[in-house]
């Protein structure tokens, strides 16, 4: 029987990234996914890797910055190991500014970014150029940040699974036995299972809907306008998302809320008018009670660990989450920041 050192349960971006990082460090990993790779939120469409605003600095924002700065090398390694694209590109993001107060706030944040982002990226207020890809801005000014990046969620998940296999790991779909320590990265269903096991809520699923249009803008920055992420991808598609629904009837069905999202995107960016719809998606994104990723040992369950709660920023957080979980499980080194620990959501 082939050697197996440990198990990762869950074929979403947290589970796949952790398994890949463990394999890169020499571990023989069995990844078990009950349904299919990217069955939950990681099978979505948007793929916006965007930072929080550079102010009111805290461990969550610092962790995210580290992860976003790790991303280029991380995803390049995944592509090299798998031979598959991930759709990663760091092309920045534009946001319109509605009024003088917004301009003042954005300018102050730009000053903060010079320190907080450690000169690795910029947050600037820039004049609109009149490009068809730019949203209308009442002030004629836009925020341009150079930290934001994008990837294609489905491509990235497939590439991670292939990279894990190429490194000697095992990917199992369906039921399988655990070996060694077990890391549970099972998304919304995992948060519910953990809540049931502990007898109190630690988080749950928030439904999101998104769609993809056929429109060639692969070299353009992503946009954040009217509460929407508009993200061009390298395959000639543009993803638009997403809703945040606490109450729903069918977790994976799309409805008129997505039609409204589509209409708002076209209103914000008229060049998308008439672009054919390629795909519509709905699913549950795992949101921990603390609103930050939930990382660490499973309480009162020796040899079991939790990596969950990526919510809207799972792909952006994944490289750093993978590093932290590998430190913990392989080396016994706890580098989990305050606010990200399992007990913070209990």
Automatic annotation (TrEMBL):
**Keyword Oxidoreductase appears in the UniProt entry:** yes
Provide the alphabetized UniProt keywords: Oxidoreductase
Which GO cellular component terms, listed alphabetically, does the Swiss-Prot or TrEMBL entry include?
A: cytoplasm
Q: Does the keyword Oxidoreductase apply?
A: yes
What the entry lists under Pfam families is as follows:
DAO (PF01266)
Q: Which residues form a coiled coil?
A: none
Top-rank taxon of the source lineage equals Bacteria
Cited InterPro entries: FAD-dep_OxRdtase, FAD/NAD-bd_sf
Q: Which residues form the FAD dependent oxidoreductase domain?
A: 5-328
Q: What is this protein called?
A: FAD-binding oxidoreductase
Entry GO MF terms: oxidoreductase activity
């Amino acid at each position: 029987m082939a050697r197996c050192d440990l198990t990762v349960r869950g074929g979403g971006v947290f589970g796949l990234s952790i398994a890949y990082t463990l394999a890169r460090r020499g571990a023989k990993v069995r990844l078990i996914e009950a349904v299919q790779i990217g069955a939950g939120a990681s099978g979505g469409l948007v793929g916006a890797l965007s930072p929080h605003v550079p102010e009111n600095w805290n461990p969550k924002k610092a962790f995210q910055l580290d992860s976003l700065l790790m991303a280029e090398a991380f995803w390049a390694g995944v592509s090299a190991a798998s031979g598959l694209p991930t759709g990663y590109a760091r092309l920045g993001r534009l946001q319109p500014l509605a009024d003088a107060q917004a301009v003042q706030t954005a300018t102050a944040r730009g000053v903060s970014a010079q320190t907080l982002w450690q000169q690795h990226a910029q947050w600037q207020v820039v004049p609109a150029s009149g490009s068809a890809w730019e949203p209308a801005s009442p002030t004629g000014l836009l925020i341009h940040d150079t930290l934001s990046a994008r990837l294609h969620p489905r491509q990235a998940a497939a590439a991670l699974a292939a990279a894990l296999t190429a490194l000697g790991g095992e990917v199992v779909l369906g039921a399988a036995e655990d070996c060694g320590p077990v890391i549970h990265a099972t998304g919304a269903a995992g948060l519910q299972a953990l809540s049931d096991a502990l007898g109190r809520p630690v988080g749950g699923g928030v439904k999101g809907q998104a769609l993809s249009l056929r429109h060639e803008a692969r070299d353009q920055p992503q946009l954040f306008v009217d509460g929407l992420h508009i993200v061009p991808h390298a395959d000639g598609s543009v993803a638009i998302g997403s809703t945040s629904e606490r109450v729903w009837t069918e977790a994976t069905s799309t409805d008129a809320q997505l039609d409204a999202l589509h209409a708002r995107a076209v209103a914000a960016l008229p060049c998308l008018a008439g672009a054919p719809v390629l795909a519509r998606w709905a699913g549950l994104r795992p949101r921990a009670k603390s609103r930050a990723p939930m990382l660490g040992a499973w309480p009162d369950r020796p040899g079991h660990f939790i990596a969950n709660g990526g919510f809207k920023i799972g792909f952006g957080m994944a490289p750093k989450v993978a590093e932290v979980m590998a430190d913990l499980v392989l080396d016994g080194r706890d580098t989990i920041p305050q606010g990200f620990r399992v007990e913070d959501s209990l």
